[in-house]
């Protein structure tokens, strides 16, 4: 049977890779929904290629821009707008699985609605899990919804744990390529330019996640993501720098056995597995050539040079609303960096200040999380404005 997929956030890097996977298996998958914020040109091309029944864009302006072009075409579609539009789309009975590739905190509410509507989710977004992991996982359990990880490290851990007794898990080795500044001293990081940050040695990604990879906040988020997805405590998750990015993560059991998942560095692989699960499909990606590779390397992450990872650990120890505050303060700081209003090395400084001022709420409900999120955004903006005016 053909699986009908809605790709939320289809014009980003993961979204576009997803459509390539779907295109490669026309008898397995088809596209029923595509959404973007405002990258109308890319969305238009995708609509021509896949003719989805459901479309959503950010606002009326974007909708009008799209419709002007779609007038040329004669096929039936429904066009939705804004956050409400995403909520409507995930209800549609024609959807078998949702690939959620919306970036940042915006993914949280559509994710929760998708779960309420009992749709299985291939989840590429990690910020939602960082903010509200417990709520998401509990809701998914109640609704018997599968959350299928797309993030390469989470996918690796998921594959290694498949069929295993999770009670016998001893450690998770979460691998990190180390980002573009692995070997740099903190003093060298001070005047780092945006272009340097956006050039990741292993992965081609969007701007936000490229900055997060350079600060190692991305790895910090993954620590929190993995705590929620696999219900493991923080002390069992060890971050290992592995520059080749061939091992995507490993799990260790109580008998000392370690399972690892290895592959070429290409997002199409974890995307394909999340779509085809529990089956495996062939792929045209190049194989790993061990004889050319010769060696794999491992290092300890330097928390002094990359304080964002340490901040994520601290948030993971406290939990409650701390991870949501971490995410929100990071979001604002990364934006300020991209707008040249904040130095690269000041990103963790702002986040640390915001975290230290937050009154943590343990066992938060969604409302607590959303208000912590907006509080942290305001607080971070204020701090950055003050730093900027000096
Ligand atoms: Mn990852």
Describe the structure.
- The chain has 390 residues and is an alpha/beta fold.
- The chain folds into 2 domains: 3-149, 3-Layer(aba) Sandwich (Rossmann fold); 166-264 and 301-388, Rna Polymerase Sigma Factor, Chain: A.
- Helix content is 48%, strand content 15%.
- It contains 17 helices and 11 strands.
- Strands 4-3-2-1-5-6-7 form a 7-stranded parallel β-sheet, with helices on both faces. The chain has a 4-stranded mixed β-sheet with strand order 9-8-10-11, with helices on one face.
- Helix 2 (40-50) crosses helix 3 (60-70) and helix 15 (322-338) runs parallel beside helix 17 (366-389).
- The radius of gyration is 21 Å and the shape is globular.
- The N and C termini lie far apart (62 Å).
- The structure holds manganese (II) ion (MN).
- Manganese (II) ion binds next to helix 7.
Report the strand count.
11
Distance between the termini: 62 Å
Shape: globular
Task: Please state the CA-atom Rg, rounded to the nearest Å.
Answer: 21 Å
Query: How many domain regions?
Result: 2
Continuous helix count:
17
Structural class call reads: alpha/beta
The name CATH uses for the topology of the largest domain is Rna Polymerase Sigma Factor, Chain: A
Strand percent estimate: 5-15%
The CATH homology group name of the largest domain: RNA polymerase sigma factor, region 2, helix turn helix motif
Helix proportion of residues, in percent? 40-55%
CATH C-level of the largest domain: Mainly Alpha
Bound molecules: manganese (II) ion
């Amino acid at each position: 049977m053909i699986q009908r997929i809605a790709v939320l956030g289809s014009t980003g890097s993961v979204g576009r890779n997803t459509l390539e996977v779907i295109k490669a298996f026309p008898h397995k998958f088809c596209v029923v929904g595509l959404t973007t914020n405002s990258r109308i040109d890319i969305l238009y091309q995708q609509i021509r290629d896949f003719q989805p029944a459901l479309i959503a864009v950010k606002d009326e302006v974007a909708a009008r821009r799209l419709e002007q072009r779609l007038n040329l075409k004669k096929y039936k579609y429904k066009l939705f707008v804004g956050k409400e539009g995403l909520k409507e789309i995930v209800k549609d009975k024609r959807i078998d699985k949702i690939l959620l590739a919306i970036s940042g905190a915006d993914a949280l509410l559509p994710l929760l609605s998708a779960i309420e509507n009992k749709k299985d989710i291939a989840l590429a977004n990690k910020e939602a899990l960082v903010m509200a992991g417990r709520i998401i996982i509990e809701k998914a359990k109640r609704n018997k919804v599968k959350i299928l990880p797309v993030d390469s490290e989470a996918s690796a851990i998921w594959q290694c744990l498949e069929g295993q007794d999770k009670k016998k898990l001893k450690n998770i080795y979460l691998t990190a390529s180390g980002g573009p500044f692995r070997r740099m001293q903190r003093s060298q990081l001070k005047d780092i330019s945006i272009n340097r940050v956006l050039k990741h040695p292993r992965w081609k990604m969007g701007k936000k996640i490229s900055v997060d990879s350079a600060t190692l906040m991305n790895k910090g988020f993954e620590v929190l993501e993995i705590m929620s997805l696999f219900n493991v405590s923080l002390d069992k998750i060890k971050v290992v720098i592995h520059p080749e990015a061939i091992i995507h993560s490993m799990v260790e059991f109580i008998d000392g056995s370690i399972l690892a998942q290895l592959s070429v560095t290409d997002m199409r692989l974890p995307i394909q597995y999340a779509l085809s699960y529990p089956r495996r499909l062939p792929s045209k990606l190049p194989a790993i050539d061990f004889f050319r590779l010769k060696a794999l390397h491992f290092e300890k992450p330097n928390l002094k040079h990359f304080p964002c990872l340490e901040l994520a650990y601290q948030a993971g120890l406290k939990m409650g609303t701390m991870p949501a505050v971490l995410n929100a303060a990071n979001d604002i700081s990364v934006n300020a960096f991209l707008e040249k209003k904040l130095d690269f090395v000041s990103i963790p400084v702002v986040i640390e200040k915001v975290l230290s001022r937050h009154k943590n709420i343990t066992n938060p409900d969604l409302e607590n999380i959303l208000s912590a999120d907006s509080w942290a955004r305001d607080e971070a903006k204020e701090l950055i404005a003050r730093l900027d005016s000096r």
